[in-house]
Specification:
single chain; mainly beta; Neuraminidase; 5-stranded antiparallel beta sheet; 4-stranded antiparallel beta sheet; 0% helix; 44% strand
């Protein structure tokens, strides 16, 4: 992909709450925006559904962010373990824990090239690596941003389709059956892969019921993006955030009441975390970093639903600094730096279950 899935802001802006439905036959969401309401720090009360275990994250090994590996760490910042050991020419990133904690699925990028990414899974102790690249055959160019289903039987991911590498005409959400290795397209079904689609669908996450998938949709004509949800058969498309928010990388809460996401995707110097109900109501900020001071990156609920982990980097003299992984409550309070490595860049966290 030519877009950088790196960057996020809310701090003190007004926005509308969106409820959307799919226009018959159009494949696009047509939304009704309710009157704008200022974001608040309202609490999100969640139901405990699991015990919090280790956090998986990616650590870059070079300043160009073309090499790096996946690690895990305890939420208290101790017990760091390296999981993947890629060659010097590969980057492993975007980890996602299986529901039972036995596997981590992730991206493998040769030379850090997102347009050549493939999927793999590995045990948390670094053993048993299995490639999941078998279904990526022409016109498939790249697979990335995997997410396990609640049952552990399927993996949702984004797939780029087109005539040749670096020419992704269609980027859509697919679902892989882990046992058979077969993949099925969910969004933008039937689109020609030699013609530029009007949008790109990326970074999926499952609802706890396994019946819907949330993802980010990027409009190629406006350069804005929003969070959508869709049934796993591709019907029932809904937009739940305003385009102007540039929301990305959603994550469902364990009880399904909230979707966590980051904002200002395309900005390198601004971005925050926010929560919204799956129907589009209750939109409010979790973090309040001022533009030009810091940027919050991708995030994940803890299995208990009581805490959040997220990447964050400082902005120094208008330039991004190295990211660290943080943990906080659902208000954005009681925040602490888990990785504490100012000389390394670490982000893309996913909170796993206790085993």
């Amino acid at each position: 992909m030519n877009r950088t899935l790196l960057s996020c802001t809310i701090a003190g802006i007004s926005m509308g709450v969106v409820v959307a439905a799919t226009a018959p036959g159009s494949g696009a969401a047509t939304g009704v925006v309710r009157p704008a309401t200022r974001l608040t720090s309202a609490a999100a009360m969640l139901t405990t559904s699991g015990q919090d275990g280790r956090i998986a994250f990616r650590r870059y090994f070079d300043a160009d962010h073309t090499t790096g590996a996946i690690f895990t760490i305890r939420p208290d910042g101790h017990g760091t373990r390296q999981v993947t050991h890629p060659s010097a020419a590969r980057l492993t990133t975007e980890p996602d824990w299986s529901p039972n904690g036995h596997w981590i699925v992730y991206d493998v990028l040769p030379h850090g090239d997102e347009d050549r990414s493939r999927l793999a899974k590995i045990h948390p102790d670094g053993t048993g690596r299995v490639s999941l690249a078998g279904s990526c055959v022409a016109p498939c160019l790249t697979d990335g941003f995997p997410a396990w289903s609640p049952s552990g039987a399927r993996i949702a991911f984004q797939r780029g389709l087109g005539p040749r590498v670096h020419h992704n005409k269609v980027v859509a959400i697919f679902v892989l059956r882990v046992r058979t290795g077969t993949a099925r397209q969910v969004t933008q079904q039937g689109r020609a892969t030699d013609v530029d689609a009007p949008w790109q669908d990326e970074a999926p996450t499952w609802s706890p019921s396994g019946r819907r998938i949330a993802f980010e949709r990027f409009s190629r004509s406006t350069d804005h993006q929003a969070i959508f949800t869709v049934r796993t058969n591709g019907t029932g498309l809904r937009r739940i955030t305003p385009w102007s928010l540039d929301a990305s990388q959603p994550d469902y809460s364990p009880d399904g009441r909230w979707i966590l996401f980051r904002t200002e995707e395309e900005s390198d110097t601004a971005g925050n975390l926010a929560l919204v109900h799956p129907g589009g109501s209750g939109l409010h900020a979790v973090t309040h970093a001022a533009p030009g001071k810091a940027k919050w990156l991708s995030s994940s609920f803890s299995p208990s639903g009581r805490r959040i982990t997220a990447g964050r980097y400082p902005v120094v003299n208008g330039e991004p600094g190295n990211a660290d992984v943080y943990v906080m409550d659902l208000h954005g309070h009681h925040r602490h730096n888990v990785t504490k490595t100012p000389n390394k860049a670490e982000s893309a966290p996913d909170w796993g279950p206790r085993r």
